[in-house]
Amino acid sequence: MTEANHHAPLKDSLTIEEMNTEAFSQTVQNTMKKNVYAGEMTKSVASIPSTSSAELNAKVVLLENQMRAYLEASGDKSLEQKTFEKIKLTYKNIQGLVKKITEQEREQLKVPLVKIKTNITKLEALESENP
Question: In angstroms, rounded to a whole number, what is the distance separating the alpha carbons of residues 18 and 20?
């Protein structure tokens, strides 16, 4: 056995280990990003003021609960996806209900709703990069 052949298996195992380390690092990075985006969404939802619409207020509470469930599902890919789909649906419902409140109330909701939508988009992009 030549010296080059003798070292080849060690080199292969280092390459596999490096790949595993890189994959682990990417997973940790993605988890951190998810938590940041979800945290920003949670803060945005919490900053939504109460409105004259009881139905809208109830949907905001539902969205808060879904955000909590999403964060608690961390690591359970299937549960994360189901909860995220519920979040997107509730957000769409909120958008529809916003049309029924006063202009002044709509103005107060603009910034938090844009932040929520931005973070939904970021989470979707992260999911599509790492299915």
Answer: 5
